[in-house]
Amino acid sequence: MKKILLLATGGTIACRPNEQGGLAPAITPRELLDFVPELAEICQIETLQLYNLDSTNVGPEHWVGMTQAVRENYEKYDGFVITHGTDTMAYTASALSYMIQNTSKPIVLTGSQKSIYNRDTDARNNLLRAFSYAGADGAWGVQIVFDNKVILGTRARKVRSKSFDAFSSIDYPETAVFRDSRLIFFMPKPTDLPPVQFYTKLDPAVFVLRLVPGIRAEIFQFLKPMFRAIVIEGFGVGGLPDSHDSAMLKAVTDWTASGRIAVFSTQVQHEGSDLGIYEVGRLAKELPGVLEAHDMTPEASVTKLMWVLGQTDDRALAQKMFTTPIQHDLL
User: Fold this and answer.
1) Which residues pair with 207 in a beta bridge?
2) Same domain assignment for residues 215 and 106
3) CA–CA distance, 149 with 78 (Å, rounded to integer)
4) 227: phi then psi, degrees, rounded to nearest 5
5) Are 260 and 165 within one domain?
6) 193 and 216 share one domain
7) How many CB atoms sit inside 10 A of residue 30's CB?
8) Any idea what the CATH number is for the domain that residue 310 is in?
9) Which domain covers residue 177, as residue numbers?
10) 25 Cβ partners below 8 Å, 6+ apart?
11) Distance CA 76, CA 312 (A)
12) Rounded to whole angstroms, what are the CA distances from 25 to 29, 60, 189?
């Protein structure tokens, strides 16, 4: 029987009503396990309460804490399950994919849309499936297990705010699925993984700018003092609006000339960006310091930039690191 460490961070799965009538994380990891007694037949579980947060409040400092907890316990356990709120789970899964690379052991994130405290909830099933995957031969990597699906951390997005079917794998197959109680693998565990690597340095000086019709180029000047990189979520396959004075192109030119990075992405959920198709994108693509997210998820683009900037101040090296595929984030 495999030995799995449960790292609890809070989230809806651990919520119960407070005195004000709202829901707040309060259920301990041991209490979570008591709700699913079948887990005792699957694996040996030990627990560690890292945080007890609504995932809206989870950020880079907490990703570092999770990474450190996995690193300190990596040799003691066969796998890890992290209970987490759904709102930022995809960001955490992406971040951990860059901070814990080449892991042959499963690091599984799960949570729920309704508290395990409720009668009608998805929490019990998600927790059961998360440990079933973590304890299975062939499980590997940073994954989200939710609603009977296993999704790579770099490809996961929350696509529904209330339904139990909350997460999808964007433009990439699910790693595995559960059919009733049977786990079916679609992607085998890699056989040639190098030794696991842990990273605990991040630079959160990354801004996401969503273009809207009529946006003003002056926004870049406001952002420059605080941010080293920007992700520009453009329209369609990507590009910059041109109001006949080329103000936006000049602003991006000034941004990159200062040594900063600009990553062009798209607001469209599927199929990614391609700056080379239209003139509004081609002109931006030719600028030094401009990169493309292509088919990366927004969560992966942002967290990968934070990881890259935490490792180097050299823009050329940062660009190379960003464009090097990690755990299938770029296809």
Assistant:
1) 230
2) no
3) 21
4) -130, 145
5) no
6) no
7) 13
8) 3.40.50.40
9) 3-198
10) 10, 11, 14, 15, 52, 53, 54, 85
11) 31
12) 11, 20, 34
- In this prediction, residue 21 carries a pLDDT of 63
Same domain, 95 and 175: yes
Domains held by the chain: number: 2
pLDDT at 63: 98
Q: Are residues 183 and 263 in the same domain?
A: no
Give the pLDDT confidence of 143-180 residue by residue, as tens digits: 999 999 999 999 999 999 999 999 999 999 999 999 98
pLDDT at 83: 98
Copy the structure tokens of residue 163.
Answer: 């339904």
Active-site residue, from 12, 67, 103, 110: 12
Please indicate whether residue 12 is annotated as part of the active site: yes
Q: What is the pLDDT of residue 192?
A: 87
The 3-state secondary structure of the chain, one letter per residue: CCEEEEEEEECHHHEEECCCCCEEECCCHHHHHHCCHHHHHCCEEEEEEEEEECHHHCCHHHHHHHHHHHHHHCCCCCEEEEECCCCCHHHHHHHHHHHEECCCCCEEEECCCCCCCCCCCCHHHHHHHHHHHHCCCCCCCEEEEECCEEEECCCEEECCCCCCCCEEECCCCCCEEEECCEEEECCCCCCCCCCCEECCCCCCCEEEEECCCCCCCCHHHHHCCCCCEEEEEECCCCCCCCCCCCHHHHHHHHHHHCCCEEEEEECCCCCCCCCCCCHHHHHHHCCCCEEECCCCCHHHHHHHHHHHHHHCCCHHHHHHHHHCCCCCCCC
- Maximum CA extent, the chain: 68
pLDDT of residue 43: 96
Instruction: Output the CA–CA distances (angstroms, integers) from residue 77 to 73, 131, 331, in the order listed.
Output: 7, 13, 32
* 8 A C-beta contact, residue 299 and residue 90: yes
CB 298 within 8 A of CB 265: yes
Residues of the chain with pLDDT under 70: 19, 21, 244
